[in-house]
Amino acid sequence: MKLTDVLIRPILTEKANAQQEKLRRYAFRVSTRANKLEIKKAVEEFYGITVVDVNTVIVPSKARSRSTKAGLITGRKPGYKKALITLAVGESIDLYSNI
Fold first, then answer.
1. 18-50 pLDDT tens trace
2. How far apart are alpha carbons 3 and 43 in whole angstroms?
């Protein structure tokens, strides 16, 4: 798998921001076919930092429904794979520089 296909986007939530400040842990949405070694190599290459630890979790899909004039519409929100990257002491990633 190419390294450009591994990382999809960073996850920017309140919980992820709290972990960035306290634990030096960053969250990324990654390809479901990527393993921990590919994720570590991709993050180190793109951001030029040292990765200490990689944890992954597969977030399951969820059922969603909404009410419309035509009635209740049901569907599914797709699942995805999330990677939690822990950096070495003194290193950080500036995720907000492109905004």
1. 999 999 999 999 999 999 999 999 999 999 999
2. 9
Q: What residue ranges do the domains of the chain occupy? A: 3-87
Round to the nearest angstrom and report the end-to-end CA distance of the chain: 28
CA angle at residue 2 from 91 to 6, to 5 degrees? 50
Residues near 82 by Cβ (< 8 Å), separated by ≥ 6? 11, 27, 28, 29, 30, 56, 57, 58, 59
Q: pLDDT tens for residues 49-61?
A: 999 999 999 999 9
Structure tokens belonging to residue 89: 């002491």
Task: Give the global pTM.
Answer: 0.86
Given CATH 3.40.50.1820, say whether it is the number of domain 3-87. Answer: no
